[in-house]
C-alpha cells in the first residue's frame, strides 16, 4: 500500500470516531481525533489507563499548536527550535480539544512531529491526533510494529501499513512541562 493511501484510510477511520495504530517520530502510537471525546475514551479503555493520566497529541506545525493552547510561552518556541530529539511540551491553557484529553490542571502534552509519516498524517487530518504508546499501561512501549501485543492490534479500527518492517531502536519523546509562571520542569529526558 502506498503511504498516501495508508494516510487516507487512517484519516477516514479517525473522522468516523475510530482509533488507529500508527508509526510516529518516536514509538508506535495509538491515535484518534484529539477533539473527539468518545474516541479518546476508547483509547483510555484499550490502554486500560485511568483518564486522570492525560494523553499527549501530535500536530504538524506551529500554527496548529496555537489552535490548541491559549498562550504558547516564548520559552516553548525557543525549545521547539533548539531540541534535536522529539520533545513533548506540557503547556497550560489547553483549548479546542476533547475534555477527557486535557489534564485536571488544564494543561495538554503536545508535540510538533517532523517525521514524514506522522507529519503528513497530522497535516492531512487538519487536527491534533492523540499519540500514546501502543501498549497496555504499565507494559513496555512498542518500539517497532512487531513489538505490539495482539490485544492492542485487535483493539484498534485500523493499523497503518507504513513502516511495519522497521527493526530499529526507538525511544519515547522527552517531556518538558512549561508552567504559565515560567517554571520549566523536565518530566522525562
TrEMBL record:
Keywords: ATP-binding, Cytoplasm, Nucleotide-binding, Nucleotidyltransferase, Transferase, tRNA processing. One of its GO terms (cellular component) is cytoplasm. GO terms for biological process: regulation of translational fidelity; tRNA processing. Its main location: cytoplasm. InterPro entries: DHBP_synth_RibB-like_a/b_dom, Sua5-like_dom, TC-AMP_synthase_SUA5. The keyword Methyltransferase does not apply. SUPFAM superfamilies: YrdC/RibB (SSF55821). Its EC number is 2.7.7.87. It is found in: Cytoplasm. It comes from the Bacteria. Belongs to the SUA5 family. This is L-threonylcarbamoyladenylate synthase.
Amino acid at each position: 500500500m502506498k503511504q498516501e493511501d495508508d494516510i487516507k484510510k487512517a484519516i477516514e477511520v479517525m473522522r468516523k470516531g475510530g482509533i488507529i495504530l500508527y508509526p510516529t517520530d518516536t514509538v508506535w502510537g495509538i491515535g484518534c481525533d484529539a477533539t473527539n471525546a468518545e474516541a479518546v475514551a476508547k483509547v483510555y479503555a484499550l490502554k486500560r489507563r485511568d483518564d486522570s493520566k492525560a494523553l499527549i497529541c501530535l500536530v504538524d506545525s506551529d500554527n496548529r499548536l496555537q489552535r490548541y493552547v491559549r498562550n504558547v510561552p516564548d520559552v516553548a518556541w525557543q525549545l521547539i527550535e533548539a531540541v534535536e530529539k522529539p520533545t513533548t511540551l506540557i503547556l497550560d491553557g489547553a483549548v479546542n480539544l476533547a475534555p477527557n484529553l486535557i489534564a485536571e490542571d488544564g494543561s495538554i502534552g503536545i508535540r510538533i512531529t517532523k517525521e514524514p509519516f506522522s507529519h503528513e498524517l497530522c497535516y492531512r487530518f487538519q487536527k491534533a491526533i492523540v499519540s500514546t504508546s501502543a501498549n497496555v499501561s504499565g507494559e513496555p512501549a512498542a518500539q517497532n510494529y512487531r513489538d505490539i501485543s495482539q490485544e492492542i492490534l485487535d483493539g484498534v479500527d485500523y493499523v497503518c501499513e507504513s513502516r511495519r518492517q522497521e527493526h530499529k531502536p526507538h525511544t519515547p519523546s522527552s517531556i518538558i512541562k512549561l508552567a504559565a509562571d515560567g517554571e520549566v520542569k523536565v518530566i522525562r529526558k
